[in-house]
Amino acid sequence: MSAQEAERPRPPDGGPAEGGPLRGLPAVDRVLRSEGAEALTALYGRPRVLEAVRAALERARREGRGAALTAILEEASARLEASMRPSQRRVFNLSGTVLHTNLGRAPLAEEAVAAAIAAMRDPSSLEYDLEAGRRGERDSHVAGWLTRLSGSQAALAVNNNAAALVLALNTLASGRETIVSRGELIEIGGSFRLPEMMARAGTRLSEIGTTNRTHLADYAEAIGPESAVILKVHTSNYAVSGFTASVPAKKLAPLCRERGIPLVEDLGSGSLVDLERFGLPHEPTVAEAIAAGADLVTFSGDKLLGGPQAGLVVGRADLVAKLAKNPLKRALRLDKIRLAALEATLKLYADPDRLCLRLPALRLLARPQSEIADAASRLLPALAAALGDKATAAVIETKSQIGSGALPVSLLGSAGLALRPAPGISVESLARAFRALPIPVIGRIEGGRLVLDLRALEDEAALSEELPRLAENLP
């Protein structure tokens, strides 16, 4: 048997007879010797092209049909192109949640993007002290900016805020108790709960107060020989209203100093500026927490701060030094790319008057509703033409959410486009058609309509270019 015959696909048991359509299938080596396959090989390499060609032939054989060489090449090419498409792709975030965890949270400023690219390209002074000519400390690239902006003594960075909190508790309270109000035992994204994180950090939970009311006396009575930390958690991802009471850090700090145990405050979204100056709801700032007497404050870099994913710790120099010496710190440290992006983001805060223009997260949150409504009116004709008779579209007023983990109950007046599918077409299939575009469009289903909230859309031209392709995906 020749090599060519050995590679020729054989019909499966019960498949078409020798004279059936499978006789029209080309042999693998014939496909690979074609000009089209050689072009694919130059792009993807022979092993992957061989795999794609075999898969295309196998599909034709399984379906009991013949296929010309060009058809096999076309399918192989499509398979190869699809396999090389990045799994993490650009999308249009029209969900109405600006800092969307599933969509990457804060978009980075151009300065941060440029800094990250520069750090990727060449060796850098990540952990090298150029003046002394010896090993340096990677946190030094951001610590100075963090202390300046927060009014703290020292700072360090890890890979996210959950890691920052685990590091703090493991360092200060491992094998001992951490006191937390019952009303602050939060659950964060992915069903991770604070008590479980505390257990992993090696500290025992001392739960005080009730869900809706906790008093200073509750903290005082709970402090004992095994108490190592009082943890204050800012409930940034939910709100309790009505008959409530909680103890602010300003009142807890004197008690902690008197009893000789540190006060750690987890701010979660962690704003570095007062958002009210930009017309947004107030969120406690890191500087406010430090001024109120917190010994350590942990917060995120990729939410209201507007930078890359990071967990940041600021506070007393002696406590930060202890955290830095914990072996966990090495496991949780940031790489040079995110440190470069974080440093560039923090530098933008040195010019607060232009911060709203230069920091995308803040710029999107502060957009006037009238500006968003104008964008919706401009996009409506092109969208209606793309939908044809499959759905109707109309400009609507709506509400945007700052972020699922940042001020979730504070809604911003916004505008968008509401799409109602025609009879016989489900709103789910309409949403799926938008997600199938080359640059997927992510909206939200609400009241039987697909709502495209335009608060987070700045590139109208790019979205307009996608809309003519929508007809290919519509049911």
Which descriptors would you attach to this protein?
475 residues; alpha/beta; Aspartate Aminotransferase, domain 1; Aspartate Aminotransferase, domain 2; 5-stranded mixed beta sheet; disordered N terminus
What does this structure look like?
The chain has 475 residues and is α/β, with parallel strands linked by helices. The protein folds into 3 domains: 3-84; 92-100 and 365-472, Alpha-Beta Complex (Aspartate Aminotransferase, domain 1), CATH 3.90.1150; 110-358, Type I PLP-dependent aspartate aminotransferase-like (Major domain) (Aspartate Aminotransferase, domain 2), CATH 3.40.640.10. Helix content is 41%, strand content 19%. It is built from 20 helices and 18 strands. It has helices spanning 3-7, 28-32, 35-44, 46-62, 69-84, 110-121, 140-150, 161-173, 194-201, 216-222, 249-259, 286-291, 317-325, 327-332, 336-348, 355-358, 360-365, 369-387, 427-435, 460-466, and strands at 92-93, 97-99, 128-129, 134-135, 154-158, 177-181, 187-188, 192-193, 204-208, 227-233, 263-268, 296-300, 311-315, 391-403, 406-421, 441-442, 444-446, 449-453. The protein has a 7-stranded mixed beta sheet with strand order 5-13-12-11-10-6-9, with helices on both faces. Strands 2-14-15-18-17 form a 5-stranded mixed beta sheet. Helix 4 packs across helix 5 (69-84) and helix 7 (140-150) packs parallel to helix 15. The longest helix is centred in the last third of the chain and has 19 residues, at 369-387. Residues 1-19 have low confidence and may be disordered.
The CATH superfamily of the largest domain bears the name Type I PLP-dependent aspartate aminotransferase-like (Major domain)
Gross geometry: globular
- N- to C-terminal distance: 49 Å
In total, the number of domains comes to 3
Structural class: alpha/beta
| Secondary structure tally, helices | 20
Name of the top-level CATH class of the largest domain: Alpha Beta
Widest β-sheet, arrangement of strands = 5-13-12-11-10-6-9
Q: What's the total count of β strands? A: 18
Give the second-level CATH assignment, the architecture of the largest domain.
3-Layer(aba) Sandwich
